[in-house]
Description:
Blueprint: H1 2-15, E1 31-38, E2 41-53, E3 56-69, E4 72-86, E5 89-99, E6 102-111, E7 114-119, E8 122-126, E9 131-132, E10 146-147, E11 154-155, E12 157-165, E13 174-181, E14 185-190, E15 193-200, E16 206-211
Parallel strand pairs: 9-10
Antiparallel strand pairs: 1-2, 1-16, 2-3, 3-4, 4-5, 5-6, 6-7, 7-8, 10-11, 12-13, 13-14, 14-15, 15-16
Amino acid sequence: MKRFLVSLLLVLLIVSPTRAAPLDSVPASGKLSFAIWREGNRIGSHRMTFRREGTTVTVEVRVDIVVQVALITLYRYTGLRIETWRDGVLQAFAADTDDDGKPIKVRARVTPEGLLVEGSRGATAMPPDAQPFTLWSRAVVEGAPVFSMEDGAPLKLQAEDLGLSPPPRGNVPARHFRLTGDLDYELWFDGATLAGVRLKGRDGSMVEYVVE
């Protein structure tokens, strides 16, 4: 019987891989900074700051994008997102975005029924372990319930592990994932830490996030 139980435990460990906890992806430095490139030109930055107080982690994310041609601004995007985590579980989320003059707000908070997410599509109840599509968390490629930071709607995503390859403009291989479904992204992680991003812009141009 003892041998049987040990064998059963080993099988469960093999067929039931554990998802990385979101806060495993918090860098020791408390900061992540990426330059955003489009078709060979730098167009902005995506910066994340992590602050720990006991078991609480507050993440501040700032995104600034400006696309210009001959000093004429064709497109501008700014965003400020604040995430509050306690014991590895999202407690609150606030996103304020200016998408080329269009204001966007998304809010999320813990309720007795789970996580309540409010955006342009109304209010949606999500599981307690849900999180925004926040690029820094490796849990987004490991099956965590995810909602959009643009309208608050739940996202249906499928992740494919592509093995090891260098991230954009990098030389050191990292774990490469492809997300498809409601979004189409490529993400690279060095262990649990975000190392690079690639996606297509709305105009079909290639956009890359490069570690600064």
